[in-house]
């Protein structure tokens, strides 16, 4: 088991709600996550797949929403989610220039599972989100192949790894190593327990802006004066991006899921970011509570939906789990050296060194 | 030269503004259009490229906007256009499941032209828009290859063909053959002449809804009673989509270009559509008036922008040219027979038959 | 009974669906409409109230949505409808500078009915929409008083008048007299009959742009050459606005109601408008199918919601009833002479003269 | 001079940019703020006016944008700001049920200054934003009168008071006294100094969520265990709202101002909020750099606009000044007792008590 933020710091006081069993997005029943990691010299990149449930997702769509905090991004699939309030695809993360390749892989996968696409079921809306890992990864090589999507998908599990893995392999967060992080919260409504989980692909922020529950890096540990390197400066003109995936087993409408996404933005802000110009900050939320079986018989869906006035606890869960997921992405990530010999130091290492 | 709507019908009274020289989107200086057409048995599809100007588009971005009328669509590139109000990519059209492949081709093309992508210029936002041509094209074969993008790009010209070509090869419009259509308007502001051009990829509507400047098909020509075929019914569950590209040499802000896009929707409505559920109706507009040279020296851009109160003539041009472009897509298209032996009749043929 | 468009023209062929009993928005059970009309010399204005149902609307909210086609408008109440997907207020129409006064009247009315506002029920979201009637009405006199809201509300009925009444008193449409118009459609889903109704406050367009089911005014009747008057020219800089209210008894989500609103825009476009710069074109839709009783016990709502793939018939109903409602606003309106002796001629009169 | 957050706490380390001369929104040249305060027993409310410049604002409009973080609010004027990217009105703040009254006062004021409204200048878009002060103020009395707008306007000055004044009189923030707060930042671009200022009307959050630069209230001072009072619980169902006004002398487009507004949301999040369901959180930003003189001669505007890649320093300024403005609203506010004998304690008092 990877040590996470809670294993290093007492964060109980910053958290009004308890995490689920895994403290991961996979605490939502049916959700699994898999990675394919490419780590070889100047290639430090990969693919991460979030499977929303275990059945045919194209035939069993889920209510969903997206929110673009800052749209300096190249994702595919958002237009239809907005119109129909649903997803019909696994959610895939990768580097910014490989979205097309991964989308094609995803399409081939779903075509193979659904004979009626191209016939009475029409087209398919692939969802691929991205960050730019060009600091550690030779982006121009377009290293991710279609097979990497399939490999990530084969690897899906409940207890997936976080940190410098999958799409997170080459990502940087607050000048340190970022990548995949996750966290979850559980809470009761009407005597029933529900869960909300967040998964982030973190690739944003500058060292001096980082806040760990209000503490800056220099509050936590002595900071050496760093000469800004040329490559750093080059990179800075394009700093950023973060993708947040929120999953919940609570029955929310797509309108409510959109409201939930906005709260993820508050969770990100609490980690210190001012949301830089070059950042593609996108949140996608889905609820596993009901399948939308559009193409079955029957003209109506029967939905049980939470009342809006009961949303506050869910909003808190979204803020807290997004914030903690960012920290988890940093705390679990090992240091990585890649493209042009550049490296990003692991926050975990910094903490361990400090502790010694 | 292809005969267009104006060659068959007296449309002067429906048009308050005159068309440009070509009556095409290429009446805007610098704009060129090219096709790659795949027409072989059950493969009836292709790629169409709109080049916004003749220089390096990544280094010389243009102000732009998008408007989603109905978001049942799978386009890539819209998120960043919304945030930054600019395009940095050729605008490429293809079938719905080949967006990823074409995006990757576009990325390879732009990478080859711009050494600084993946370095100080960061990432690149490819723009690929689509319709679903599954009625005439075997969509599941994912027939479009990366080379088709390059072929379309090699073919760019001012006097491009309209109709059943490029991305329009397999498209259907109002139960007849649709595809690529274009039209333009010219008008004076402050003694200077400006142009607005529209290019559509038409793939929407049912025969009984079609209106040719207010006249239904049965007003124009006798209609035979048609038995609805099974394949027709199958197809209907996913009817639709239309992409509209608007170009102008008038200096408009991205906010104003967004307003322009909304007017394209009025142009579409006048052709009879009620905008069906399954339609992905998307409008993209750009102005060639200024280059946005973000990465040059200097912290400010100097812009000359039209006052909003002068927009009415441009709005009219957008409505009229979009409406006429839809008709042109139908009037120029030849009949096509493709997947499963299905065919779409040419409106041109119907008119010619009627005239005989 | 007022003669409407169907009484003058054969519009069956332009209409795929049948109207309801009244061919008005009041064909939706529970919906009533009332007017207060101010018509005295240079004061030609008023208030129109649409009551969504017969019970306490604040305690029995309805799912709702708004869509801004062109936002040159001054309405109040839209922000909250967007966030919560619901209305808790009668929908009130008036002239552009009296929105504040009418909002205050509405607040006093709802406060009197709901003791818990200002306490546990918090605040109240009044909905007041407007057009600018300054051509016929001396707008600067702010003639509408709080009592006019109450008077309009007392007058609510099923068989309300259309034309130059209530908020429509001073409005102009396509250079002729506009105002209040309404139309409806009925249709079957799963063997049950449902209704959709539209009510417009029409105040947009220029004479030469008008299309009556594809026919221009000069197609219908001989047009005299008109000298453009100075006041006309003055007015033109601010031409326009139209408000569309859609009501349905079909259970739609707020997301679907938003999609419905977009189709009202297609209905407007078919009457000829290119949506001028100065126009505030706003659509509001609500469903009477369920009450949202947020403040009752219970944490969840149970909703029956139409599947999106069944929306096409409703979309058609929205297009057709909006288009016909605009015509009805013109055909029912008498000629009005008002501010500065200006007058707007009645389309009804033109037709009657022509027929003689 | 009122003591502000900087006078109690060392906040240099949390602030990368220096404040302007006043550390208020009035550091932007031309901007002035005035209050009218109603403080008498159960009436604790008022009006605050932000004047964007010293000339006729209707004739000299400014580029502007709005961003709705959470739309549980009743403001007027936002629709047109979105469409035209400009304001033509003073920005007025008041309590939630008096928006109509204040809008009417504002209209009368602007009508008196502009003879051409209702004629060739058309209508006027009043901007009135609100929070719900019902905990301390008897909201149902609709205490604010039209004269209070005029009184606030007479009182405008550079060195305006913050805290429990004007529209802020009855507001609560994080369970303590909130109200009006302001802060500013200055920064250089191309050797020229520019300013950004924030003004907030704070009325959101619960005591346990408050973070003063990462420290909770219990970190700062010992907290007594509080029995939750019935009125508290009642109030909680409608907690919240905050209005943020951002002003800058930097030439930004309306698109860029919209982006700026999003960053104010990050500033709010850093004060601890999770953005509760019942909160109306709205940001409005304007730039004083150019007048938009739409109705002058000339068809084009000449704009100098900052490049997007230079926005980061402005984004930081927006985050920092919004965050500090919230703290200033609390630190400057005196304790207030009002409706039903309820009171909100002053953070200033708490700090002073602690220091003794």
Quick overview of this protein structure:
Chain A is of the alpha+beta class. Chain A contains nine helices and 15 strands.
Describe this structure in words.
The structure is a homotetramer of 356-residue chains. By secondary structure, chain A is of the alpha+beta class. The first copy, chain A, has one domain (17-291, 304-355): L-amino peptidase D-ALA esterase/amidase. Chain A has nine helices and 15 strands. Chain A has a six-stranded mixed beta sheet, with helices on both faces. Chain A has a four-stranded mixed beta sheet with strand order 1-2-5-6. In chain A, helix 3 crosses helix 4 (146-154) and helix 7 (254-270) crosses helix 8. Chain A starts with a helix and ends with a helix. In chain A, 65% of the residues are buried. Chains A and B meet through strand 3, helix 2 and helix 3 of A and strand 3, helix 2 and helix 3 of B. Strand 13 of chain B pairs antiparallel with strand 13 of chain D, so a sheet runs across the interface.
What tags apply to this protein structure?
homotetramer; 15 strands; 356 residues; four-stranded mixed sheet; alpha+beta; globular
Strand content of chain A: 25-35%
Just name the CATH architecture of chain A.
Answer: 4-Layer Sandwich
Overall geometry of chain A:
globular
Average predicted confidence as pLDDT of chain A: 94
Number of helices of chain A: 9
What CATH calls the topology of chain A is: L-amino peptidase D-ALA esterase/amidase
The total count of strands of chain A amounts to 15
Question: By CATH's scheme, which homologous superfamily of chain A applies?
Answer: L-amino peptidase D-ALA esterase/amidase
């Amino acid at each position: 088991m990877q040590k996470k933020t809670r294993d290093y710091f007492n964060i109980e006081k910053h958290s009004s709600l308890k995490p689920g069993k895994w403290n991961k997005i996979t605490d939502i029943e049916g959700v699994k996550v898999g990675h394919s990691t490419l780590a070889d010299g100047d290639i430090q990149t990969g693919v991460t797949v979030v499977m929303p449930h275990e059945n045919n997702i194209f035939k069993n769509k889920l209510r969903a929403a997206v929110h673009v905090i800052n749209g300096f991004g190249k994702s595919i699939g958002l237009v239809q989610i907005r119109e129909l309030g649903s997803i019909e695809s696994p959610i895939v993360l990768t580097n910014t220039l490989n979205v097309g390749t991964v989308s094609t892989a995803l399409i081939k996968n779903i075509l193979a599972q659904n004979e009626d696409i191209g016939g009475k079921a029409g087209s398919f809306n692939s969802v691929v989100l991205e960050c730019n890992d060009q600091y550690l990864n030779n982006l121009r090589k377009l290293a991710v192949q279609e097979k990497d999507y399939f490999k990530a998908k084969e690897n899906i599990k409940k207890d997936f790894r976080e940190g410098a893995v999958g799409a997170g392999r080459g990502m940087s967060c607050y000048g340190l190593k970022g990548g995949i992080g996750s966290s979850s919260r559980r809470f009761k409504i009407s005597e029933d327990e529900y869960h909300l989980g967040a998964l982030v692909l973190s690739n944003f922020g500058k060292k001096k802006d980082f806040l760990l529950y209000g503490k800056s890096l220099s509050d936590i540990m002595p900071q050496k004066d760093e000469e800004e390197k040329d490559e750093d400066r080059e990179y800075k003109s394009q700093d950023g991006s973060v993708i947040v995936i929120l999953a919940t087993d609570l029955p929310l409408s797509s309108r409510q899921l959109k409201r939930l996404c906005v709260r993820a933005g508050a969770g990100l802000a609490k980690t210190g970011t001012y949301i830089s110009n070059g950042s593609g900050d996108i949140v996608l939320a889905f609820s596993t509570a009901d399948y939308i079986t559009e193409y079955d018989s029957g003209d109506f869906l029967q939905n049980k939906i939470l009342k809006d006035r009961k949303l506050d606890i869910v909003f808190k869960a979204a803020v807290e789990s997004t914030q903690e997921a960012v920290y988890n992405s940093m705390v679990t990530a090992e240091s990585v050296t890649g493209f042009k010999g550049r490296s990003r130091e692991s926050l975990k290492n910094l903490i361990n060194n400090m502790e010694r």
